[in-house]
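Thread: "does anyone have the structure for this chain?"

Original post by V.I.:
We have the sequence but no experimental structure in hand. Need at least a predicted one for the grant figures.
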Amino acid sequence: MSAPLQGHRARKRFGQNFLQDPGMIRRIVRAIGPSSKDHLVEIGPGTGAITELLLEAEVRLDAVELDRDLVPGLRVKFFNEPRFTIHEADALKFDFASLKQEDEKLRIVGNLPYNISTPLIFHLLGFEGVVQDMHFMLQKEVVERLAASPGTGQWGRLSVMAQYFCDVEQLFLVPPECFHPKPKVDSAIVRLTPKAVPDTRVADLDSFAATLRQAFSQRRKTLRNNMKGSISGEQLESLNLDPQRRPETLTLEEFVTLANFHHQSATNSARN
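Reply from O.Q.:
Generated one for you, tokens below.
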């Protein structure tokens, strides 16, 4: 989001914190590196400061904005930009694949509201087949979770799912002073680049997601306790997984193994 329009107040229910530092806005756009061949999608353009710099690169730009009070101002501001289209919609429900044309890939950018950032990222990961890359400003804690390594306190369901689909790069921090109103937390810029081919492949994505939810349901408990009712301790041992391990110690590859076994077991049970 950009600096606020005159008379527009940031809305708490939308999680709005408007980026207003010109130097930081330029730095973010440089990190994105837009070119005239790109089709960008901006989530939450706010009042259009980042939008304006992106359009200077002659990109084709679709913007998705939920706040209906901001939409008219954006239409006026960019009325003479034929490559700009705004969609008054909820990004959590938006079909991003509908914007794709022919063989192009979308480049998605946005200052994601803190209150919906995690579910929105999960939603966007479902479109990895049509996305070239994603650049987001997020709460620093969320970026650290996205980029986390196994065995750390930040490693969790979001980390595993994001890193299954994407290479994750934490780029730089954005301090509270760059926003109006100032948030109570630090922000950071992250780049997510979908992998052409996953490092290891899951048999069923729904089963993978369900396995992660169950495994991380109680972080302090062991894998045996969290997977109770789905996978026994003996079955975990057959996968070379110590039932006494905690979920944050498992690698991405081990979670894929666990999910594929879970899916196969459920499939066999359904047949019998």
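V.I.: this helps a lot. The chain has a mean pLDDT of 89.
O.Q.: and The radius of gyration is 21 Å.
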